[in-house]
Every structure is written in C-alpha cells, then in structure tokens.
Amino acid sequence: MQLDRAIDTYLRHVTIERGLSEHTVAAYRRDLTGYREWLGEQGIGDTAEITSAVVQAFVADRAGAEPPPAATSLARLQSSVRSWHRFLAREEIEQDDPTGRIRPPKMPRRLPKALTIDQVERLLGAPSAEESLGLRDRALLELLYATGARISEAVSLDVDDLSHGDVLRLRGKGDKERIVPLGSYARSAVDAYLTRVRPELAAKGRASARLFLGARGAPLSRQSAWLIIRSAAERAQITAEVSPHTLRHSFATHLLQGGADVRVVQELLGHASVATTQIYTHVSVDTLRDVYATSHPRAR
Fold first, then answer.
1. In the chain, N or C terminus with fewer CB closer than 10 Å?
2. pLDDT at 63
3. Lowest-confidence pick of 28-37, 38-47, 162-171
C-alpha cells in the first residue's frame, strides 16, 4: 500500500475505532509524517518495501541526529512507528511486522515534581477574588488540585458534569469517564464563578455548555489555561517550574503522603495501570532521613 494511504488508514482507525484524543492523533501524524519523508529519501514509497533493516536504519539515523533527541522523544517516535506497522500486519495489509525486533530505548525514571502544600496554597490564592477573571482562574486552579484532573480534562468539562453534588465527572484518555470527589474548597470556588462570573462571560459569546469560558465567551483553551497557571505561579512568587501537570503531580503526592492507598489514587488519576501511579510512591532521601531520625530508637 502507498505510504500516504497507509498512514491515513491508520489515523482514521485510531481516531474513530480507538477514540484517541486529537492531541494523541496529532502526535502520531507528526511522527509518521517524518517517517514517511525519511522513507521517501531512501526511495521507498510502498509499505511492502519496508524491512526490519529499514526500520533499524531509521531509528539509528534519528538517534544519531544533532542535537541528539531526548530519550522521551525517541521513544515516542519508535512507539508511533511500531504501532503503525503492527496495525498494518494485524489488518493483513502487510504480511509481517518489521518492528518485531526493535526495542525501545531505556527511559530514565524521573520522579514527578510536586509543589509543597504551602506553595499550593500560595498558588491557589494568587488570582484576585475582586476581579471576574480572577474568580474564574481561582475556580480552575482549585478544581485542578482538588481532582487531579489533566488540563485537557478540565477545559473539556461541561456545566452538567457538576450536577452530581460533591463529585465531578471527568472524561479522560480514550473518552473514559471517571467520577472524582470535588472537595469543599473547590466546590465553593466553582460555585462563586458559576454565580458571579460565568453568566457575564457567556453573554459575550455563542452559547456553550463548557464550564470554563474565556474573556470573550468562547470555551477556555488548553493554552489559555496554561497561561493562567503560569501567571498565578509568578504572582505567588514560586520559583520552581510550574506546568499544567504540576497540580496533578501535587494532588497525587499529597494524597499518598497523607496515607491514601495507591490503588485509590490510581482510580482518581484515571491510570489504566497501577504501575503508572507507583512512581509517586518514591520518597526523597531527605524524607527517609527525617522519618528514620524520628522513628528509630537508636537513630540519634
């Protein structure tokens, strides 16, 4: 099958049948477009011409690029290529999967960076409660920390997703739904936004069911939400790097530090595997030293 057609067939499959998010599909498209361009430079225009040696040459070429790619970028690229070839073999578009012997690079195990509880409180209190958009921003930040929601999940929320009292319905990866507690602080902040701010914002734009709206009444974008978090971090004078995922990391870390079971945290985060959640259970050397010093009878 011609490369362009084979890639389009795969992208339709992951979009329609697997229900992957538009961001994941866009990442697949970027990776496979780069792969197709490289294959074209080698004079390959059909999937039947791709052998294991060709795939290995592509991986080696990308790994040896200048500047060298990050291990995470190379691993994602290999994953995209491997998934595409597996799909072609499974659908019998091609007889064999040439990526069978390709092994992903070993990934460095990085611990998520979490804020301290004091830093979180400063971050959540940074937006001004005297300003309309400040109330919206505080509601967004409180909700992110209270639920551990991904930023894409938060901006995709509809007002109706709040209609379950003290719990919230989130739609995660693959459009999977989960119910998480909202918490009194977040509920209060969201209620203040819904009562005092959202009607005003909604009147400026077209009717939208989205919970969080921008200054002109359109649904709040992921990029705008990221800017809200960055601005709050600056106002709170937090020097540590704060990203859209920081509150999610902090949510999980603080729950586990408070004694929550890792499998409960797994459900709250929407992780398919508990192994993904267990990265949060690692504690720092300083924490180990402190616990040892206060708990062991012969530590001092």
1. C
2. 81
3. 162-171
Beta bridge partners of 169: 179
At 111, list the tokens. Answer: 């611990």
Model confidence at 75, pLDDT cuts 50, 70, 90, reads: confident
Please confirm, yes or no, whether 176 is among the known catalytic residues.
no
What DSSP character marks residue 220? P
271 is catalytic: yes
Residue corresponding to tokens 């039947």: 48
At position 175, the amino acid (one-letter code) is D
Catalytic residue among 85, 248, 249, 254: 248
- Catalytic residue, chosen from 150, 187, 198, 254, is 150
150 assigned to active site: yes
Instruction: Determine the length of the chain.
Output: 300
Query: Across the strands, what pairs with 170?
Result: 178
Catalytic annotation present for 245 = yes
CB within 8 Å of 113: residues ≥ 6 apart: 240, 241, 246, 249
The DSSP secondary structure of 119-174, one letter per residue, reads HHHHHHT-S-TTSHHHHHHHHHHHHHHHH---HHHHHT-BGGGGTBTTEEEEE-GG
Q: From CA 91, how far away is CA 227, in angstroms rounded?
A: 43
* Spatial CA neighbour of 115 closest among 226, 235, 253: 253
Mean pLDDT across the chain, nearest whole number?
Answer: 86
Is residue 181 classed as helix, strand or coil in its secondary structure? strand
Please write the tens of the pLDDT for every residue from 122-137.
999 999 988 999 999 9
Tens digit of each residue's pLDDT (9 = 90 or more) over 221-248: 989 999 999 999 999 999 888 887 889 9
Say whether 35 is catalytic: no
How far apart are alpha carbons 147 and 299 in whole angstroms? 38
| Residue 210: strand pairing partners | 158
